[in-house]
Amino acid sequence: MKVTAARPEPSEELSGIGVVGLGYWGPNLLRTLHELRCSRRIVACDVDAQALMRVERLHRDVEVSARFDDLLEDPEIEAVVIATPASTHFTIAKQALTAGKAVLVEKPLATSFADGAELVRIARERKSVLMVGHIFEYSRPIAKVADIVRSGELGEIVHINFVRASLGLLHHDVNVVWDLATHDVSIAMRLMGGMPTAVGCQGQSHCRCGVEDVAMLTLRFPTNVIVFIYVSWLGALKTRRATIVGSKKTLLFDDVAVHDNIRLYDRVVAPNPLDGDYGKFRRSERQKEIAPARLQESRPLDMECRHFVDCVLTGSTPRTDGLSALRAVSVLEAANLSLQQRGAMVPIRPADV
Ligand SMILES: NC(=O)c1ccc[n+]([C@@H]2O[C@H](COP(=O)([O-])OP(=O)(O)OC[C@H]3O[C@@H](n4cnc5c(N)ncnc54)[C@H](O)[C@@H]3O)[C@@H](O)[C@H]2O)c1
Hints:
Elements: E1 14-20, H1 26-36, E2 39-45, H2 49-58, E3 63-65, H3 68-73, E4 79-82, H4 89-98, E5 102-106, H5 113-126, E6 130-133, H6 140-151, E7 157-167, H7 176-192, E8 198-204, E9 214-220, E10 226-232, E11 234-246, E12 249-254, E13 262-271, H8 276-281, E14 283-289, H9 300-314, H10 322-340, E15 346-347
Parallel strand pairs: 1-2, 1-4, 2-3, 4-5, 5-6, 7-10
Antiparallel strand pairs: 7-11, 8-9, 8-15, 9-10, 11-12, 12-13, 13-14
Helix pairs in contact: 1-9, 4-5, 5-10, 7-10
The structure holds nicotinamide-adenine-dinucleotide.
Nicotinamide-adenine-dinucleotide (NAD) binds at residues 20-26, 45-48, 51, 68, 83-86, 88, 92, 106-107, 133, 135, 179.
């Protein structure tokens, strides 16, 4: 049964869009695109027949196919959204770009710098849209955090640390660094306004041999700022936290906080109230909370998908284009090299293509 609700003007919608990969994340992209009513046709694709059946049950007006080639050969499919495992991104995105489709590929863009750079080159040569699902670039609270940092309210940035942990959702093909640290690396680069110069990374695999499920990254930025990123698939609780320490104030961002997700602390140096010899020599740095705030998230996936469709319709460059995502790949590749070298600092190459 076809949906008959009012649709936007023809110029505001695509003739067709494909969504490839309908495991955990793909159905969210599919649902969002469906709700946005941004395409006359939506074709969902997965090699898993059960995944296709689930889609058919949920969205009766979405076409399904087990063959990606069907999408590539279909002239009405202008754009393809890829939510397959990270290790397949390069091959599938390359096929789509080569077939003349615009591409939104989930993070990470690719699992090596060479592959990511090839995708960027192909998109550039064909003047095709290549966008990467760095979803936090479309998050209102993160935009607010970036505004506060840019305003200078925190003073000079001294240090940032990120914690991103949850239990479950282990991947077979890539480690927790490629999976989770991608988000924080891109947020860190946004806040710092550029790329780090070197990265060190230590990690360990507990569940699947050779696939690290817990890791700690150390990023060095040109201004000598040090950034720590702790990522784990073994966390007891879902944690998404960033602490940005400035010379004047500290900002705490807690993406899963029920009440205030952005808190600012004034740093006050005061005598330690402890008695005794030790207390006399110790001074404590108390932190006074000054501005708790809850900034409503406005469904960043809506913003991301809408932005992609707009870029395809207008031919403009996405905010999270291939080149910006290649910078994150460059950092992640160096982090994985460091993992093999037991945490040695590895220089990061600039993402020139
Ligand atoms: N932006 C985010 O916050 C976010 C969150 C979760 C996952 N992701 C990303 O989404 C992607 C998918 O992750 P997931 O957790 O959904 O993985 P998943 O393993 O649950 O699902 C992947 C799906 O792709 C299908 N698939 C594999 N190869 C295919 C092919 N050649 N053609 C068609 N279908 C194919 C599989 O059958 C499976 O259904 C990953 O890149 C991941 O990094 C992003």
